[in-house]
Amino acid sequence: MPRSGLHALVFALFIIMPAWARAGATAESAQPAKSVEQVAETARKSVVVVTFSGRDGKRQGLGTGFVIAADGLIATNFHVLGEARPIKVQLADGKTYDVTSVHASERALDLAVIRIDAKNLVPLELADSDRLKDGQAIVAVGNPLGLTHSVVSGVVSSAKREIDGRPMIQLAIPIEPGNSGGPLLDMYGKVHGILTMKSLLSQNVGFAVPINLLKPLIKKPNPIPMSRWLTIGMLDSAEWKTVFDARWRQRAGRIVAEGLGTGFGGRSLCLSRQATPPVPYEVAVTVKLDDEAGAAGLVFYADGGDKHYGFYPSAGKLRLTRFDGPDVFTWKILKQEPSAYYRPGDWNTLKVRLEKERIRCYVNDHLVAESKDTGLTEGQVGLAKFRETRAEFKDFQVAKQIRGARLSAQLVERIDRTIAKGAPQEPAQAELIDALTPEAAASIAVLRERAQRLDQQAAQLRELALAVHQKRTQADLLHVLQSKDEAIDLVHAALLVAKLDNDELDVEAYRRDIDSMARELNAAIPKDANEKAKLAALNKYFFEEHGFHGSRTDYYSRANSYLNEVIDDREGIPITLSVLYMELARRIGLKVVGVGLPGHFFVRHIPPKGEPQLIDVFEGGQALSEADARRRVKLVTGEPAKDEQLAAVGKKLVIVRMLHNLMGTTREDGDVKGALRYLDAILAVAPEASDDRLMRAAARFQDGNRRGALEDVDWILEHRPDGVILERVIDFRRVLTRPER
């Protein structure tokens, strides 16, 4: 939707907005301000304790929430809910309720609304947070450190602050664990924000999400029943079995482990259910630890309980251990060595080769430990973490032989000759320091100048690596789009669009996720289901059970154009939601095509018999008539809709439109390199797009690439496409060929 159209819609929504959403619109001076005690006393009736449970049923997390509707709606932070965990709410009177659904959520803003089966609750009134002033007195109520219904008062330090790209209210009050999700109240008892985090720099500085950002979620919720919520981010139980609790989940194609395991030493395991081949065979994974004081890595020959081997980094060293029982007295450290090949704080690939009477352990393809221990000789393989470590795992593999990632010396030498010479020398040695000290001032100046040069070179090398990645991804995208339109794997292409901006995106992992979704959807549909029943099942699965929804508060975020993030967060813009919807429809035998109206993307279900039906995936599967669609086109363009505007869009054009959407996000933040990245991909797919070629010429010129800009201008002058004012292009060429001063 164009921004002008969005502004008009926002204005229209305000006119019909219910009373709770206009709170603060009348002068508060009509009622007297309350004391801190009075505000707290009133708010306590509405403030609740929110907890989530671990796999063992015990409480693992605690936060705050507050009632926003008498029929059981509670506002809180997204992070208070945990992920895929049963959630409970305790009211002020001590009654406890199970959460029946996550009524609305938005991960990017850390906001959530949950529902409990309760009536006649006392809701807090929502204010207009845009009217909050710097220095205004405020009160916060929450459950810090488990101390329920604690009260703190202070002032607003800054009513409009941006933290990590998110609007925030900065507060001169302390926020502790357990405060999250609590209400930020003015002296009239109205809610202006939701407490979310404390400052890392000062004890008495906190932040809250403005309450106005919650209102669109209330108006357009995306309810997810608890039966479905409990599956979000969960590992596939057909592939993995977890032991000793902790939190194991899957996101962005990776397995993430966090929380304290219940095994001795905080141990927790995640065992693969796949059968292992007979020895010799290898098992490998790439792992990154949030804290090198922790430990996480591979396990093998595991019995499903306390017995197994482990190979993992621990406190900066590589350790091979045999675990024969539940306590430290039954553990035997077989090898423990530091390794120059281990990269602290970075991704490291661990590999173990299991032979009949030997274990060989590698880090980043270098042998670091070897043992002939035969205490355990069979069992499962998998992952492990210890203590409070938060670890990420990717590329888990089991095979007779796993190909190493280390580059050959010849290849490295060839690449080194291709790119610019010069790499940082070895760390300073004592002799060198002594030699430089007599001329210290000059030495320091020279060293700093050289360091600056190396910094510039490092930046250039990173930029070169990014360009190589983009070129490779662009080539992969072109390969996918080479097929005839009906044979193009649209999901694969859409994931490659997202990969242009994320070289770590695991495309195959997301394709497997969609395979799993399709299997689950198919299993829920009777074999004799007709078209109508299949479409109803798809809508129920997509919108009701999974909560996929249109982005309401951050529409222009690039994340909404990345299909992987849409799958993870269940939120997106019309075209990305439609791509996933069309794919799932195809998997259950429905013909659903894309329709790219100006300013909005729809899909059309085309049954074998009967009339086609336009569907707005952004609006929860709302059905539209063709007359509705034509009215929308006229509203956006000011002209009657043309038949071709309502026609099905080819898959290549869907990808081009996705790239155009991403390019549009670069205008807001002046990201010229981002614009060039998307324009390069667009022109690779659609080289005849003259408007995009002109835009690329301008962007190249702005980025200092005159030669590239000249190439695009000359292409325009050679091909003379319709609609281009050639005189202006010729003038631009004169600018490009003018000698630089």
Description:
The protein is of the alpha+beta class. The protein contains 18 helices and 33 strands. The strands form six sheets. A seven-stranded antiparallel sheet has the order 14-17-26-19-20-21-22, with no helix packed on it. A seven-stranded antiparallel sheet has the order 15-16-27-18-23-24-25, with no helix packed on it. α7 packs parallel to α15 and α8 runs parallel beside α14. It is globular and about 80 Å long. It starts with a helix and ends with a helix. 36% of the residues are buried.
Write the layout of secondary structure elements.
Blueprint (H helix, E strand, L loop, with lengths): L2 H13 L20 H9 L2 E7 L5 E11 L3 E4 L10 E4 L5 E11 L4 E6 L20 E6 L7 E14 L2 E6 L11 E3 L5 E8 L7 E5 L4 H5 L4 E2 H4 L10 E4 L1 E7 L2 E8 L6 E5 L8 E9 L5 E8 L5 E7 L2 E7 L7 E7 L10 E8 L2 E6 L2 E6 L8 E7 L4 E9 L9 H10 L11 H7 L3 H41 L9 H10 L7 H17 L7 H15 L3 E2 L12 H7 L1 E2 L1 H14 L4 E6 L2 E6 L7 E4 L5 E3 L1 H12 L13 H19 L2 H14 L4 H13 L3 H14 L6 H12 L4
Parallel strand pairs: 28-29
Antiparallel strand pairs: 1-2, 1-4, 2-3, 3-6, 4-5, 5-6, 5-13, 7-8, 7-10, 8-9, 9-12, 10-11, 11-12, 14-17, 15-16, 16-27, 17-26, 18-23, 18-27, 19-20, 19-26, 20-21, 21-22, 23-24, 24-25, 30-31, 31-32, 32-33
Helix pairs in contact: 7-8, 7-15, 8-14, 14-15, 15-16, 16-17, 17-18
- Main beta sheet, described? 7 strands, antiparallel
- The count of strands amounts to 33
What is the helical fraction, as a range of percent?
Answer: 25-40%
Straight-line N-to-C gap:
43 Å
| Strand order in space, largest sheet | 14-17-26-19-20-21-22
Rg, rounded, reads 29 Å
